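This part of the workshop introduces the protein records we will be handling. Getting from the letters to the tokens is the skill we practise here. The record below serves as our worked example for the rest of this section.

…
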Amino acid sequence: MTPLDGALWLVRHGFAVFPADHPGLERCGGIGKGHDPATCTDRGKHPCVPFTRAHTLDEDQVHRTFGDRLRNVGVAIGAVDGPDGGHLLVVDSDRPGAIEDAAGAFGYRHTPTMRVTTAKGHHDYYWTPGSLQLGNSLGALRGKFDGDVRGPRGYVIGPGSVHATGVLYEVVDAEQPPVPAPAWLLTALQTPAAPAAPRPAAEGSAPRGGSLARLIAFVLASRVGERNGRLYWAAQKAFQHARAAQMDARAVADALRDAATRIGLSTAEAEHTITSAYNSRNAQ
């Protein structure tokens, strides 16, 4: 399946699509505030257009967009209408079996639905009631699920696309449509996450002092659900330490980004958090 094949399959099944960066391009074709295509290393995922309004369900437009250029396929989640006015929700598992394990943690079995395999795991597509206003928050899934969710304000990369590793996004069963999201999942997404239990100081408490090595170790000890928060805190302290010690801030950022990607954050997520911490520290 090529990106054109995937885009046509999607629109024929009611999913609005838009062009995204393709890793085969010499440089990233994506756009976005703060995004530099020339230095982008998180390839194949950035929208090439403002996806909340520049999406289509028209097959002729799909041919014009994907037929003669390298583009991955994005799915504009908020532009998809479900049964009885429902919304689309996509559960993005960062490893095979992640959503099955999360369901088990809540005492339920996973409900099979439309699934697209990815480089790390899979996307499961569900319908949610139109009365619910779900975003991208994990709610009570935080700490129990290795992945993310994408609601109406988000997007995912669709079948036919190519990951930066060369893995193809593929529909598992072309005859399986999205099913209504199970009640346990909807309840979990609407329930605030429980506060994290304190951990022993030797295992993962905030480091005393500001040495870069201790701060990197602090980031590496992060668990799912706390990674961005701990990275942001450590980055602020690291940049403060770098300024006092006259260290190169770029080298500090590189070390933090490497640690963040090792614990499962994407390069784009890590860079965004580190940049925010740097800007916050410099504004003080």
Notes: The beta strands are 17-20, 72-76, 87-93, 114-117, 122-128, 147-150, 155-157, 170-171, 179-180.
